[in-house]
Amino acid sequence: MDFIFLTQVGGILKPFAWVMGEILSAIYKLCSLVGFANIALCIVIFTIVVKMLMLPLTIKQQKFSKVSAKMNPELQALQKKYANADRRNQAVMAKMQQEQQDIYRKYGSSPFGGCLPLLITLPILFALYRVIYAVPAYVDDVNAMYKSVSDAIINEYDSTEDFDYMDALEEFYKKQGVTPRTKASKAENDTDRVIDILSVFNTETWQAFRDGEQILDKDDNPDEEYKNWNAMVSTPEYAQIMDKQSDNIDEILGINSLFGKFNILDSPGFHFPAILLPILAALLQFLQGQISMSVNKSKDSQKNDDPMGGSMKTMNTVMPIMSGVICVMLPIGVGIYWVANSVVTIVQQLAINHHLNKIDIDDMIEENAKKQREKYEKMGVVANGNTTSNIAKSSTKAISNMKTSEIKTKAPVISQEARDEAVNAEKGSISSIANILKERNKEK
């Protein structure tokens, strides 16, 4: 029986989760000071804070989307131009790649321009989920509440030889259908292991735990499959523990409550009004997708066939429905995060788009191109007036004079000897292509 909950997340996500945990802990303490110690409220505030910290990445991503919307029609036209080109003809492929690079350079962009913000954002989001799922691992005040119950059980039953209290808890949570989060290595101590079990209890599970009733078989006899649990709850000490920890358990239920009625660890199911949360999450995600698509469209792209746009439209319709269905089965706390995240994202998208609409797209493109030139200069790519574009053009000068009709034919006008040399070359360097062209010019 191995648990991850209180060992916190490790690996590459560990530093991100630690920062997220510190933020959530500070928010909880602040809410406690003003008399609103509630994890549901903390999740909402936590989401807003994290989204605001990620705002620079969001702006960068939205700027890239704006530029891409204007650039994509040219890329699509280039793809159509070379749709029937012979992919084995390295000269033609070099020309296509050069034209593609010229388009990206013209707009001060790159094929991977939108990847960097995403690569930075993903570990933050993954860490954020882990922190929300593991609140007692990162918020000391919440941990102390669970630790009080855990220590009471361990101190009372740690030395008994009649049963194993850890096996008893395992039998109980299996019967209740509760699944603590697991991993290969054990938590550092039994206290954390017990807290891990307690921290995933929803309202009904806590009630069954406090009642401490034996689990019976079909003949109303103590079920042997749950012998450790039945033995533990049969002791008079168990009722005393639950009585002494009653106020503490009520406090745990209180901080995990939503509107004083729902527990954030409960699943909404299809019961009213809890079902409204998955519906709201799906609707807001759909609205978020529609706004995102409107931001990423340009007048030119709307006039052209855009397979990628069609795929995105389908995804933005299907994904919210799937999210709504999944949200029905997940804890309410996850649904709260999804709703809060969608609301903040929509507000940010509208605000950023309103700001970007005041900026001329051509000015934005020129600024991007300038930054790219400066980046190349720092890297030493630009020297003595020879940019990467000029170098490539000088090496493929003859190719640039090819007509579209020549590109679409799958029989390039070069000698058989030169063609064999191109096929045998490993992926064809610039120099090998130049040698082929030189040979062809001699034959002419």
Short overview:
The protein has 444 residues and is mainly alpha-helical.
How would you describe the overall organization of this protein?
The chain is mainly alpha-helical and 444 residues long. Helices cover 69% and strands 1% of the residues. It has helices at 14-33, 39-53, 55-81, 90-106, 115-133, 135-138, 140-157, 165-176, 190-198, 203-211, 227-233, 236-244, 246-255, 276-296, 299-303, 307-329, 332-356, 361-378, 388-395, 397-400, 404-408, 416-424, 430-443; strands spanning 257-258, 262-263. It has a two-stranded antiparallel ribbon. Helix 3 (55-81) packs antiparallel against helix 4 and helix 8 (165-176) packs across helix 11 (227-233). The protein is elongated.
Task: Write down the overall mean pLDDT.
Answer: 77
Biggest sheet record: 2 strands, antiparallel
Helix content: 55-70%
Identify the quaternary structure here: single chain
Give the number of helices: 23
Tell me the fraction of residues in β-strands, as a range: under 5%
Element pattern in H and E: HHHHHHHHHHHHHEEHHHHHHHHHH
Structural class comes to: mainly alpha
Poorly predicted ranges (pLDDT <50, ≥5 residues)? Answer: 1-5, 182-187, 298-304, 383-415, 425-430
Q: What is the first-to-last residue Cα distance?
A: 79 Å
Number of strands: 2
User: Measured on Cα atoms, how large is the radius of gyration?
Assistant: 31 Å
Broad shape: elongated
Strand order of the largest sheet: 1-2
List keywords for this structure.
two-stranded antiparallel ribbon; 69% helix; mainly alpha; single chain; 444 residues; 2 strands; disordered N terminus
